[in-house]
Write a structure and sequence with these properties.
By secondary structure, the chain is an alpha+beta fold. The two termini are 25 Å apart. The chain has 7 helices and 5 strands; from the N terminus they run H-H-E-H-H-E-H-H-E-H-E-E. The longest helix has 19 residues. It has one domain: NADH Oxidase, CATH 3.40.109. Strands 1, 2, 3, 4 and 5 form a 5-stranded antiparallel β-sheet that branches.
């Protein structure tokens, strides 16, 4: 598939075919691409928790509050039909350690040196590579957040190290023609005028 077509087709898919597994070789390609994203200083402070058995996927939903969400709804029932969940995690310590090494010139691990949290940004880029590779492989995926109140239970359920932060989770599977809840794009028009050339032009010509 041409790259521009991958970008055009990418959607958050919220309903999957529960009777079709994801080919392990395809999942390996998705995860390999995820590890090829940009990484400040080649710190490589990203990790990926892969849940691809019915037991592990069920444990994910239970630990993140699905069992206490007040009953099933279209979004939850659709998302729970995915046979694979991948949780991308960022490791701030890997970045602080890397930039305290001699070739980077910093002599400490002071977090204040960082203008933005590159550990989370790079993990977000890796997540986008997962979403794009999923499309290229003819599958569907959805990135969503883990409720903060449930993070402790999720960490305990999967023995997540304290220095790794889940930035969200990604369901992966064979999409159904009926994707269930269509999300915000079905209710909101695409915002235009987000590209500003040369200087910020709040009322300038639409750059789309």
């Amino acid at each position: 598939m041409e790259f521009s077509e991958v970008v055009r087709r990418r959607r958050m898919i919220r309903r999957y075919d529960p009777d079709r597994a994801v080919d392990p070789a395809v999942l390996d390609r998705i995860l390999d691409n995820a590890q090829r994203g940009p990484s400040a200083g080649f710190s490589q402070g990203q990790a990926f928790l892969v849940l691809d058995t019915p037991e592990d996927v069920a444990r994910f939903w239970e630990s993140t509050g699905a069992a206490t969400s007040g009953g099933d709804n279209a979004w939850l029932s659709g998302m729970r039909s995915a046979p694979v969940v991948v949780v991308p995690l960022s490791c701030k310590a890997a970045y602080l350690d890397r930039y305290a090494q001699p070739d980077k010139g910093w002599t400490d691990r002071d977090e204040a040196r960082w203008p933005v949290p590159f550990w989370d940004i790079d993990t977000g880029m890796a997540s986008l590579l997962i979403l794009q590779t999923v499309v290229d492989e003819g599958l569907g995926a959805c990135f969503f957040g883990i409720p903060p109140a449930e993070e402790g239970a999720f960490r305990a359920a999967f023995a997540i190290p304290d220095d790794h932060q889940p930035i969200g989770a990604i369901t992966i599977g064979h999409r159904l023609a009926d994707t269930g809840s269509k999300g915000s794009p079905s209710r909101r028009a695409r915002v235009t005028g987000r590209v500003h050339r040369g200087r910020w032009q709040a009322d300038g010509p639409d750059q789309g």
